[in-house]
Amino acid sequence: MTQSESCDDDPQTTQEQILQATYRALHRYGYAGLTIQRIADFTDVSKSSIYYHHEDKDELLLAFLERVLRDVQAGFEIEPEHDPVADLERFLERIFASIDPEPATEALPIGAYVEIRSQAVSNAAYRERVTDIDDALESQFRSLLQQGVEQGVVKDVDVGQVSEYLLTTIVGTLERYATTDEFAVEVVRAELERYLEHRVIA
Amino acid sequence: MTQSESCDDDPQTTQEQILQATYRALHRYGYAGLTIQRIADFTDVSKSSIYYHHEDKDELLLAFLERVLRDVQAGFEIEPEHDPVADLERFLERIFASIDPEPATEALPIGAYVEIRSQAVSNAAYRERVTDIDDALESQFRSLLQQGVEQGVVKDVDVGQVSEYLLTTIVGTLERYATTDEFAVEVVRAELERYLEHRVIA
Questions:
Q1: Domain check: are A130 and A82 in the same one?
Q2: B114/A121 touch (CB, cutoff 8 Å), yes or no
C-alpha cells in the first residue's frame, strides 16, 4: 500500500485515532490534565491535524461524548440469545465490567466521563449528548424487558419505569465510584440482583 | 444591642452568612458563574471579609461541601415516630422534595452540587467531603432499616447492602436531574416505592 492509500489520510480514521488517543490521555491524565499535546503524544496524528479536526478542547470533548454514545450503542449490543432475562443479565454484566480499577485503554475513562458529564449542568450542547447517552442505555433496557414481558419471563411491570430506575442506579454507581473513597460496587451489584429477582423476573 | 454586640461580629455568624449567600449565588448563577463579588451581593458581609474567611474560591467550595454535610445530617434528622417504615418514607420524601424546579434559596443548589461533586474525581479534599456526605446519608438509611428489622416491619435484609443501593439510586437521581433533559424524577420515585414494597418492607 502506498503512502497516499494509507489509513492516515482517511478523515474518519484520523478522527477515530484522535478519539482513541483522547481516551488514553483521559485515562492517564484525567479531565483536568487533558491537553492537545498529550493527545498528540498517544497517536501519530499531528497537533495541527488535531486542531484541524477540533477547534478547541470543548469541541473535542463533545466528540468524546459522541464516541461514548456510539460505544454505548455498539458495545452493549448483545447478540440476542432469545432469552431476554439472560440477555438482561449479560447487558448488566457488561456495564459493571466497565467499572474496573485497572481499565483497558480503550475502555470508558469513568472519572473523566463523570467530570465531563457534570458540565451538562450549564452547557446545552453537552446536555443534549448526555441525554442521548442515557436514552440509548434506557432504550436497550426497555427493549429487553418488553421482550421478557411478551415471553412471560418478566413480570407485567411498567417497562419504561423499570428501565429508568435501572439506568438511574447505574448512573449513581458510576458517580459514586468516581467521586468517593471505598465505594463497594459489588454491594450495589448484589442488591440490584435482589431487586430484579423480587420485582422484575417472573 | 450595641454595634459591638451585633451578630455581624461573631465569626461563626459571618461564616454562616457567607455560606447562605453562596447557596443563593449558586442558585442564581450556577457553579461557573460563582464569584466572590456575587456572593458579597447577597449579604452584608464585605468582599474583604469573605476573603478573610476563605482565601480562594476552592476553599470556599470546600466550606460549601461541609455545609451540605451539616444540612444532610440536620435536615434529614426525622423526629422518630418509632415506626421505622413511616420514618424511612418521610426520609425519602424529604430527599425527593429537595429536587424542586423552583427551589427555595436555602435549599441545596443541585446543579452546582453535581458540578462541585464531580471535582472529587481529581481533588482529594473534595473527595473526602463527598465521601462524608454519602456516608452520612447511608448511615441514616442503615439506622432506620436496622430498627425496622428489629421490630419485624422490615424483612431480614442485609441493611448495609440495601442502604448502599438506596443511596446509589438517589445519587443517580440527582445526577440525571441535573445533567439531562426531561428526566422524570417521579417515575424513579414510583419504582423506588415498588422496590421497597417487594424487597424491603415486611
A1: yes
A2: yes
CA B127 distance to own-chain centroid: 15
Domain that holds residue A34: 8-55
Closest CA to B14 of B62, B47, B58, B55: B47
Q: What is the ipTM for the molecules in this complex?
A: 0.91
Q: Please state, in angstroms and rounded to a whole number, the distance separating the CA atoms of residues A82 and A202.
A: 16
C-alpha Rg value of chain A to the nearest Å: 19
Cα angle B163, B74, A118 (rounded to 5 degrees) comes to: 65
Q: Closest partner residue to B122 among A32, A172, A173, by Cβ?
A: A32
Q: How many CA atoms lie within 13 A of A63 on its CB side?
A: 21
A123-182 tens-digit pLDDT: 999 999 999 999 999 999 999 999 999 999 999 999 999 999 999 999 999 999 999 998
Cβ-based contacts of A118 with chain B (< 8 Å): 114-115, 117-118, 178-179
pLDDT at A163: 97
* Residue B77: pLDDT band with limits 50, 70, 90: low
Hey, are the CB atoms on A191 and B164 less than 8 Å from each other?
yes
On the question of pLDDT at B1 being above 70, the answer is: no
**What is residue A5's predicted lDDT score, i.e. its pLDDT?**
38
Establish if A1 belongs to a structural domain.
no
Tell me, yes or no, whether A2 lies in a domain.
no
Of A99, A192, A88, A175, the residue nearest A140 (C-alpha)? A88
Contact A166, B192 (CB under 8 A): no
In one-letter notation, the amino acid at residue A63 is A
Query: What is the pLDDT confidence band of residue B3, given thresholds at 50, 70 and 90?
Result: very low
Contact status, residue A111 vs residue B119, Cβ threshold 8 Å? no
pLDDT at A7 over 50: no
Tell whether A31 and A119 lie within a shared domain. no
